[in-house]
Write a structure and sequence with these properties.
Blueprint lengths: L7 H22 L2 H33 L3 H5 L14 H33 E2 L2 E2 L1 E13 L2 E4 L4 E3 L8 E4 L4 E4 L4 E4 L8 H5 L6 E2 L1 E3 L9 E5 L4 E9 L7 E11 L11
Antiparallel strand pairs: 1-2, 3-13, 4-5, 4-6, 6-7, 7-10, 8-9, 8-11, 11-12, 12-13
Helix pairs in contact: 1-4, 2-4
């Protein structure tokens, strides 16, 4: 007897299951031990629902369709032959149900993760990353709007920073304040929130002496914050400041706070 190859539906179902499992494993691995343990509890709930669903389907199927022996037995001559569900349909239905439940669980976890990420950034509840840029070049008597990345003159509408004094001074516009961080690191709003109140000022002098890699925080004291990393400080020959930056907004003031100034 020749062996039968699996049809396209079982292969597709297997592919969906494998992709969903790989995605879930990658997601849990990226969460760390504590959060992965929390998500494992959520997944256990989904799997429990899936097990109950499969069990209910098994009971329903066993009562709806006769067993193979009953179908194979010779029926009475005066009774119609029982009609059994095709074997192919029975073999496909269970994997389809399982894959649908697993995909639903993956979608639910992903949506919850996105919602959680939208409300918490780097351990700072309420803050959301809204923009970033790199290789930004700012010259003497130029300002920049970090919202759009536009560079212009001193009176640029929406400007956040202004470079002056032969590019040796940077000033925060519209009442904002700046803080030079003592330690370099990744761009996280948490580092700006933890900056000491005495570190904030409306301007920073002596940009020529800042080493490359210096991190500077900017805030309006309300719902906006940014971190700049000096890529190339200005000097007496090249009076331009080159930097990268990341911007955040406080979307939920009830759960977060602006940097202390």
């Amino acid at each position: 007897m020749m062996s039968r190859r699996p049809g396209p539906v079982p292969v597709a179902v297997g592919g969906v299951l494998a992709a969903a499992l790989v995605g879930l494993v990658a997601f849990l691995a990226a969460q760390g031990l504590d959060r992965a343990d929390q998500w494992a509890g959520v997944l256990a709930l989904f799997l429990g629902v899936a097990a109950l669903t499969v069990q209910a389907w098994g009971l329903w199927s066993s009562t709806r369709w006769p067993t193979g022996d009953a179908v194979a037995a010779d029926p009475p001559t005066d009774a119609p032959a029982p009609v059994a569900e095709p074997a192919a349909r029975r073999s496909v239905r269970l994997p389809v149900i399982l894959s649908a439940l697993l995909v639903a669980a993956a979608v639910g976890v992903s949506v919850a993760a996105l919602r959680d990420a939208d409300s918490t950034v780097d351990g700072a509840p309420g803050w959301v990353e809204v923009g970033s840029g790199s290789g930004v070049v700012l010259g003497d008597h130029q300002s920049i709007d970090l919202d759009t990345g536009q560079v212009g003159g001193e009176h640029l509408p929406g400007g956040d920073l202004f470079l002056s004094q032969r590019s040796d001074r940077v000033t925060a516009l519209d009442g904002g304040e700046l803080a030079v961080l003592d330690v370099t690191g990744e761009h996280t709003v948490r580092r700006c929130l933890d900056a000491a109140p005495q570190a904030w000022d409306g301007m920073i002098n002596g940009l020529y002496g800042l080493p490359a890699g210096t991190d500077i925080c900017l805030t309006d004291g309300q719902t906006n914050a940014a971190m700049l990393t000096v890529e190339h400080p200005p000097d007496v020959l090249a009076r331009t400041l080159t930097f990268s930056y990341t911007r955040w907004q406080l979307r939920d003031p009830t759960t977060g706070a602006a940097p202390a100034r």
